[in-house]
Design goal:
- The protein has about 70 residues and is mostly helical.
- About 45% of the residues lie in helices and about 0% in strands.
- It has 2 helices and no strands.
- The radius of gyration is 12 Å and the shape is globular.
- This is Terminal protein Tpg-like protein.
Length: about 70
């Protein structure tokens, strides 16, 4: 299990809300979130782990806030 605390830019929230409002399913919203987390957390905004594939799966708990 991995606990991740990560700030993501506002454009990720906008993309997720737009997807939700357009009726995009949870699976595609998960892809959006995995891409954003992969870029921010695992690749450190492009400084490492180039080409790493991120799968956001088997999620037991998620807590999101907008600041």
């Amino acid at each position: 299990m991995r606990w991740i605390t990560q700030d993501l830019p506002g454009e990720v929230a906008r993309e997720l809300f737009a997807a939700r409002d357009a009726g995009v399913g949870e699976q595609q919203q998960t892809v959006i979130l995995a891409r954003a987390l992969g870029h921010a957390y695992f690749r450190e905004w492009g400084r490492r782990a180039h080409g790493l594939h991120i799968a956001f799966s088997d999620v037991e708990f998620a807590d999101f806030s907008i600041a």
